[in-house]
Fold each of these.
Amino acid sequence: MINILDKTFVPFISKEEIETRITELAASISRDYKDSCPVFLVVLNGAFLFASELVKRIPLSCEITFIRVSSYSKTESTGEVKEIIGIDKNLANRDIIIIEDIVDTGLTMSQLISKVWEKSPKSVEVATLLHKPESLKTPIELRYTGFKIGNKFVVGYGLDYDEIGRNLDSIYALE
Ligand code: IMP
């Protein structure tokens, strides 16, 4: 058990389980994009750990770039996506893989996907470490998903509770 600010979290997904799953996702992406030079769009802050573990297992020539969106306050999704920063790169005719930490309501991701399509890419897919299918408020296709989880609040492996907990090397769930 760990305490972060006013809340208690319990172990949920171990470091070993996460790493095994990331290795599998990396193998799928490497296979699917073997004839491409994809652009990984890493959604900061939460996806930084997942992205670094994922891309170092993908032996393709590729580009990696970083964007920022924010829609979450403390433990509840606000549904409002603020400005997307850093999407100024030329993505025309490129294969894009958005790397995200978690898809909860899906509102952030669906707006992000629309914004990326405005840049006339060849394709857009999503790799997310976690997905909460029960919370989804908009239909969304997630090609690469690490773990589907129930509607619980989690921290660790990049995910935070009020900015704390991102450095934990495994995932914890709110008790
Ligand atoms: P969505 O728009 O509701 O899908 O929210 C996506 C964003 O909310 C993610 O990128 C996370 O930053 C944040 N988020 C959603 N669920 C959790 C959670 O369980 N723990 C920490 N952050 C979360």
Amino acid sequence: MSAEIIDGRAIANDILDELRVRVTDRRDRGKSVPKLVAVVVGEDPASRTYVRNKSQSASDVGMDSDVIVVPESTNNSNLKDILQDLNNRSDVHGIILQLPIPSHLDEVAAISTICLEKDVDGLTDASLGRLTRGDPVHSPATPAGIIEILKRSKISTVGSHVVIVGRSMLVGRPLSIMLSQRGSGLNAIVTLVHTGAHSLGDFTRVADILIVATGQVNTITADLVSTGATVIDVGTNWISDSTRKSGRRLVGDVDFNGVQTVASAVTPVPGGVGPMTVAMLLSNTLSAAVMLDGE
Ligand code: NDP
């Protein structure tokens, strides 16, 4: 078997095209143009790159965007004030705090300063509470992107056994909650696996859909996948590669070449879940503008 490669970039581009049409329409009707503001603390180059990419994608669909860089030396109270100020600004619809933030700061408290309507990452306590109740305001972007990739690839989760490897608050845990809920394109039977599993393969081999978010290269090899399963690779890991000019290359958590021989469909890294995360973040930003300023 040679798996279908799910083109996350193409699916994300379709979503971005749809967003561009809706943003242009708002502009033409004199409605507010959605604005996304990213707050980044410190000089971490990876964080700065992620934030720059999100801003660029926002501009590409006609949204406004801004980046606020806060010095690494900031304290909890100052960071909270910055986020609170953004909550109060009527021209700002979506706020993201780029993670991780320096360890001397209280990450959970900082995130939860962002008000529900503007929490386009869907990670505050209030957002996660609403998500758990099955009444989300904004769903976390990466889990939402994974569900959208499955929907648009016509891979049904309804009644399927979905096994998620990784239980982080960013990916695995909210995804398990979302997929197990009633609703079109959801209603899955979900197993959430983590390092507590004595034998990972006992769980992964019984998956119809296997979603991997461990941050560990080659967590999933072909022998851990059942024939015909769908495999979604969330991981982003840099490994050294002397054939590349940069000396490194991006890979996922899945042994792509091996798994391709047993799975029916698989997402690549790069070009799978990554572009979907940005598309869903912008989709949430548009929803926020509609929620705050009307359709
Ligand atoms: P975390 O490190 O927060 O969580 C990893 C999870 O995987 C933990 O629950 C851990 O278990 C589990 N785990 C690790 N190794 C194993 C193993 N061998 N067997 C079973 N479980 C294991 O990572 P994130 O969820 O934040 O991110 C995961 C990956 O996804 C990273 O590579 C990250 O860069 C990527 N990512 C990509 C995004 C995108 O847009 N493409 C967005 C977000 C993340 P335990 O809890 O027991 O320690």
